[in-house]
Amino acid sequence: MQRDDDKNCNVTATVGADDLQTTDVDHKLQPYDEEVDKLIEWLRDMPHLPNITDRAWLRNCFIGRKLRIERTKESLDGYFCCRSLIDEFFGVRDPLGDDVQTAMRKTWFGFSSNLTDEGYQVIVTRNLTDEDVPGRYLDQWTKYFYMCIDWNLKRQTVNGVIIIYDMATTNKNELLTQVTPNFLRKSLQCSTFFPYKLIQVHFINVPSYAAVVFNILKSLVPKKIQSRIFMHNNPSDVLQHIKKECIPSDLGGCDKSIKELGELCKENIVAEREMFMNGILSLKADMDKKPKDTNSNEQSELFGFDGNFKQLNID
């Protein structure tokens, strides 16, 4: 049956990267060859970082960091260090492994078929089931999440991301016992160094017991980021922030359903298994070769190496 609001949806949603609807804010026609050359040379000079020569990937990182070369370098450093030191999120990234398969069975992650007028892409996630699983499921959830956005960064150029997290099917025990300050701190640190600008986060269908988690979350992020976090009891409220063409049909938008977007992402993650196991998405920093910061005597609590790991400002 055709939805009543289909007449208001004037963009046909397609999931191919080349078909994404973009605007003048899009950077697709800009090669940024000089900046990419500088990044390749810089990576070659960094003893602890992998020697990346994938120009399209580096270009997407540069665009994601607002065309700032030094910001991109800082981001790449943190990006690869996180992957080396936070094993629960970035250990063996096998799409057919038990941990990732469990996450795929329980959760959908999808990427909007269209971009906003500003060139932002919407990431939507929803749990399929609230079943209990052995171990720390949120670590598996986070591993799968970063595999999905790594895959998307490899294929698509965007100016930033907006996240919609549908909490309609949430495991109360997981949320209240596994979302610890340490888990949030590591998650936020990883997101800080990811080569995407975080525009907004929308939590919808939020259960009342989740308030304690959001209080912890907000206490760990700068006020600037707090202003980008929204909680909605009514899912349709996201339509006040994001245009319909970028919102799944089951949330009142014109894009494909969360299930369709999630299944597409899942299929692609499995299809790119070699890239996750042995290709660019498996690469990490060699922390034994990381230069020490001679200007600092501080010890990083997160990364565990001498010297103060420079923290990015999220903007």
From TrEMBL:
GO terms for cellular component: membrane. GO terms for molecular function: phosphatidylinositol bisphosphate binding. It holds the Pfam family CRAL_TRIO. It comes from Macrosiphum euphorbiae (potato aphid). Gene3D superfamilies: CRAL-TRIO lipid binding domain. This is CRAL-TRIO domain-containing protein. The lineage of its organism: Eukaryota, Metazoa, Ecdysozoa, Arthropoda, Hexapoda. Residues 163-259 form the CRAL-TRIO domain.
